[in-house]
Recover the amino acids of this structure.
């Protein structure tokens, strides 16, 4: 009976390996830029190790461009906030927002956490989608913010902040893109201010087999960190 059990275990292992190696096709995946250059890298690397015969086509853009691709049947990794009906959204990771900029903007020393009401007095660099959200928070506190620059890419916000232009507001994972040793960061002390990374696809969209495998795989992989 022991030999039979071991034989069945070996057979099951081979069947699993055959199933893994037999997965083929091209995964067409959209991703917003602040994710494609940070959190997505280890996720795709591990997916390739698990399914080495699967190929990848990665389409990068801002949130509006990526949401447009979902209407064409893609799956995508995007950040909240966004408004779009007819989507299935699987949560992957929740991130706090951070203020990032040259140390002089946080003199005499950068705090671990900074209130939004204090941050709004700095020259802000904003990813355009966050403007309305921040304005609503500050309006409730009878405050106004000083916006130096708005743009459509979170990476641009971070790169400008890293060069000392102003104080950028970015999700936590984007901080890994900072290169300037004089750049500092601190978490924004506002519990309701955060960004969810989600895997999204159309409720009525056709999903290829490799897309369905990725949809099952990624939430489990993201949950490990």
């Amino acid at each position: 009976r022991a030999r039979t059990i071991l034989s069945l275990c070996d057979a099951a292992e081979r069947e699993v390996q055959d199933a893994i190696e037999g997965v083929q096709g091209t995964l067409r995946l959209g991703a917003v830029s602040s994710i494609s250059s940070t959190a997505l890298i280890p996720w795709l690397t591990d997916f390739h190790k698990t399914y080495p015969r699967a190929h990848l086509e990665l389409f990068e853009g801002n949130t509006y461009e990526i949401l447009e691709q979902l209407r064409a049947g893609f799956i995508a990794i995007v950040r909240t906030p966004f408004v779009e009906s007819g989507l299935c959204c699987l949560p992957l990771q929740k991130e706090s927002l951070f203020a990032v900029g040259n140390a002089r903007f946080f003199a005499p020393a950068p705090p671990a956490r900074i209130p939004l009401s204090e941050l709004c007095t700095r020259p802000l660099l904003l990813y355009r989608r966050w403007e309305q959200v921040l304005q609503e928070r500050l309006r409730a506190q009878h405050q106004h913010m000083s916006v130096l620059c708005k743009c459509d890419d979170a990476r641009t916000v971070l790169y400008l902040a890293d060069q000392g232009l102003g104080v950028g507001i970015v999700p936590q994972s984007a901080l890994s893109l900072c290169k300037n040793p004089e750049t500092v960061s601190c978490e924004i002390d506002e519990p309701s201010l955060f960004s969810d990374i989600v895997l999204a696809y159309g409720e009525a969209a056709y999903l290829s087999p490799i897309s369905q495998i990725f949809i099952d795989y990624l939430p489990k992989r993201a949950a490990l960190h």
About this structure: The two ends are 41 Å apart (CA to CA). The chain has a mean pLDDT of 86.
